[in-house]
Amino acid sequence: MQRMFMRRTGLALLLMLAASALTFALVSAAPGNVAALIAERAAGAGADGEMIAKIANDLGLNDPLPVRYLRWLGDAMTGDFGISLRTGKPMAEEFAERIPKTLALLAGGGVLALLLSLVMGLAGAVSNGGLVDKLLHALALIGASTPNFFVAAMLVIVFSVMLGWVPTFGVSGFSSWLLPWITIALFPGSVLARVVRVNLQEAMSRPFATTGFAKGLTRRAVLLREALPNILIPYMTTFGAQFTLMMIGAIVVERVFGLNGIGAFFIEAIRFRDFIGMQAVLMLFVVFFVSVNLLVDIAAMLADPRLRRPRRA
Amino acid sequence: MKNWPWLILTPALIFVLIGVFAPLLMTHNPSTQDYSAVLAPSSWSNWLGTDYLGRDMYSRIIGGARTSLVAMVFVLVAALVIGVVIGSFAGYVGGRTELVLISVIDIALALPSLIIALALIGVFSGEAWSWMSDYWKMILALTLAWWANYARMSRAVVMAELQQPYIEAARVMGASHMWIFTRHILPHVLGLVVVYASADAGALVLAIATLSFLGLGVAPPTPEWGQMLVDGMSYIEEYPSLVIIPGLALTAVVISFNLLGEAFALQKVPRAVRGGLLRRKKAARAVEEAARAQTEAKV
Question: How far, in Å, CA of A247 to CA of A285, rounded?
């Protein structure tokens, strides 16, 4: 058991290292750019070759790639991710300012997706083939197919423009978070509702459900007491995958609603060729995605002893 | 529906046909601006009205279908070929080569495809890439972000197929590696991968629109739904139709491909459509797995 944990964690760390090295190599592959960009920022359009060369030399940009990567990684470990070419502020400062906003977005969206999927999935299973079930199936399909920026636009049209209940853009208090949360929760909520529904159906046809019926339990009781606990594992794994994917939703939503989170910064960094900012955010993404996956794996192993046995490769 | 299983293909087919015959269907040039008819409502000459530059919305929607379709086909074909080649090679050769390749695949899958595509578009914005148009940069970035899924899937099929006794039989009869691979293994790989790709098409259309929405995909004046939508956002209060029309078009296309994917996963599609390549239970299970992986890893 413990060895399994250690193994998974070790693999995850290795994956983080490899992925960050790859992104570093990729971003640095845009040749000569960083020095030229810094010179341009410092001296306007009049930056000459000499100045660019001096900056490149000062920053050690002429060193071989592995050396630069290790130096960058060493700095990153101490919380120094460089200075953003776009905003001129240290990346650590940008992170401190922006990560809480993105986390609030993801956390709210995650809770909403959880509630949405459980309610929709359970209601579908209770109705079992009835009108409600069919309606919810259609709803889940639409929810899983509507682009999140269109969802955001529709919510703005209905709740801001038509009803005037919430502000269109910007963050001001709790109500302004509602539309962003709903937007990013709709897709994962719909996918997860299907997971709940399909797995409940499968569980209801298993022998333990029949036993439940034989004991004289009602359908609803079998559903909630016998079937529901059995969907935990598939639900958790899909939830983990969907939760990380909400980061993509966050990128879109932060732009639509003018939230200054990590996603919005990432897009800005790409548009303004802020390679230092891009590299830092990509590292953050790698850590986020790999560690959430690791946590989900570990949670699944804790919940289901069968997964703890080492698998043959 | 039960008697007409082919119907499930219709919505996706309509999108493809609109894309192919777009030039015949357009009533206006989608890029021509007409300042005398800016933000016009629907009329006989402009069926869906005009946008803030007086461009015909109907023609732009049709043109957008073509833009998405072309980019999607390029990315899908390229990602599929690269993925199948790398994945099959890894699975067939095995040993250290496989270990290296599977590590590369795992690293490529550590981040969601769309984030990788975004990062690559950022890298391609450097001066060294200025000879390439934004449209092709997007296609290249998406391809490089998309192949790894196909590689992982291909490898899994190859490894499963290599266990089959008939491979051993072919080997004993003296068949070459090339013969065994192309005659016995590749059809299985392609059968699965093509089915997966047909359902993946919707996710790709969505990715193209998302990139354009973020201003990092198809650049104006080329008509593209995501970009039309982001343009319309500035007029959302007075002219919500500028946002709603491209949004609905996009949603309709994604729904049609998702329906297709769900039908494949639930085995509702007739054998003839599946190409007769998926007769085996194992392959059918693999499709189910793939469809599940797709819903889990959409975008």
Answer: 9
Spell out which residues of chain A touch residue B237, defining contact as CB-CB under 8 Å. Answer: 161, 168
Q: How far apart are CA B294 and CA B131, in angstroms?
A: 34
Question: What is the complex's ipTM, to 2 decimals?
Answer: 0.87
A225, A216 Cβ separation under 8 angstroms:
no
Residues of A in contact with B106 (CB under 8 A): 15
Beta bridge partners of A90: A83
Sign of CA dihedral A98, A101, A104, A105: negative
pLDDT per residue over A50-66, tens digit each?
777 777 777 777 777 88
d(CA A118, CA A110): 12
Q: B46: which residues sit within 8 A by CB, 6+ positions away?
A: B28, B37, B40, B56, B57, B58
Q: If you average pLDDT over every residue of chain B, what do you get? A: 82
CA–CA gap between residue A21 and residue A7 (Å, rounded): 21
- B263 in contact with A at a CB cutoff of 8 Å? no
Whose tokens are 């109907």? That residue is B58
Q: Which two tokens stand for residue B193?
A: 């991968």
Q: Are B280 and B15 a contacting pair, CB within 8 Å?
A: no
pLDDT in tens, A245-262: 899 999 999 988 888 899
Structure tokens, A20:
């960050």
The torsion defined by the Cα of A293, A298, A301 and A302, in degrees rounded to 10, comes to -140
